[in-house]
Amino acid sequence: MKRYMSVWFRHLAADRLALRYPGLGQQVFVLVAPERGRMIIRSVSKAAGQLGMLPGTVLADARAVYPDLLFYDDDTSQDKLLRSLAIWCYRFTPITGIDGADGLILDISGCAHLWGGEEAYFEQIVSRLQAGGYHVRAAIADTMAAAWAVARYGTTHPVLSSGSQAEVLRPLPPEALRLELPVVDRLRKLGLTQVGLFMDMPPSVLRRRFGQSLLDRLGKALGRIPETLVPVAPPEPYLERLPCMEPIKTAHGIEVAIQKLLEIICLRLQQEEKGLRKARLTCYRTDGQQQCVEIGTNTPVRNLTHLFRLFELKIESIEPDLGIELFVLEAPVVEGLTTQQERLWDLDTGDKKDAVMKLLDRLESRIGSSAIHRYLPEEHHWPERSIRSATDVHETTTVAWPEHQMRPVSLLGAPVRIEVSVPIPDYPPMLFIHKSKIHKVVKADGPERIEREWWIEKGLQRDYYQVEDEEGGRYWLFRSGHYGEHKPEWYIHGYFA
Question: Checking DSSP bridges between strand 70-73 and strand 29-35, what pairing results, if any?
Answer without folding.
Answer: parallel
